[in-house]
Amino acid sequence: MSASNAVATGGPGTPGTAAVGDQSTGTGARAPSGGGRPKRRPLTGREKRNLRNGLLFISPWIIGVAVFVIYPLIYSFVISLTQYSGMQTPTFIGLQNYISAFMDPMVRTSVGNTVYYMLLAVPVGMVVALLLAIAMNRNVREVAIYRTLLYLPSLIPMFAMSFIFIVFVNPQFGIVNQFLGLFGMPDTNLLGEPRYAKIVMIVMAQLGAGNAALIYLAGLRNIPDTLYEAARIDGASRFRQFTAITLPLLTPTILFNLITGVSGAMMVFTEAYIMTNGGPDNSTLFYMLYLYRNAFSYGQLGFASALAVLLFLFGMVLAGLIYWLSRRFVNYDVSAG
Predict the structure, then answer these.
(1) What's the average model confidence in pLDDT over 180-193?
(2) Which of 86, 125, 226, 304 lies at a 20 to 30 A Cα distance from 268?
(3) Residue 223 per-residue DSSP state
(4) pTM given for the model
């Protein structure tokens, strides 16, 4: 092949060839000079119309996020840089509220109580919800009734459940003390003892495990039965099937419930506000309750906004850490193979 033919046909050893396609017709596309990106073609009328209709359909969500998420976040950060009681004009004080938050011993107490609650309530709740999901997944005739009964407690509002538990743990006639009395234990004011008050709230939180149980149930139903059949043929016990099949393939659901459980534990408020109002001896003074007091009882909206910003940042960091660690144990492959 001659050099002229090699250039014309774009053969090897011709670095000067830039045309791609049929050069005889002049329809080939030319590579951009200098290695730059090709210019993006303008949208057609149909594509513009589809884009406009799509934005129109999701506009309620966009407006909702802008009004109820983005704007409050920005406003809270701005207010956190001021001294503001909600009545007079805000006075800019810079990072003083954040400095005060790190120096305030009550903030440390509320953080400790919240972390204690989180470290106990979330793991226990996930185990309880998983056990409920396994019970809901049984192949029996009355399974629909069982699912309803197991899910019903999670439908009770937290403020109503708080009043119910106040009666349950009453030291004179509460059913809990009557049950403990069967084992010779004296009547105890569980909500009046700093070492028991948080435990009562952790136990009460498990009555809302029905929501997480339904999510676990969906994950269990998504695991192919052929995997269990193959494991039974190989002689695997039920416990081995659970540890080798159920748990690994349920890890995406576990991750979701872990994130939502941690988020809910960081914002625990209602039960402490109604049952103990932070007592006894500040043992149930959770972070959100202390934030509420500063905002609406002490009239320190600037300081409360700083606490809210710190809670948001801590939640984002914690969620990112959980997602980073999840790469080591989460398995998204649930195909039957």
Answers:
(1) 84
(2) 86
(3) S
(4) 0.80
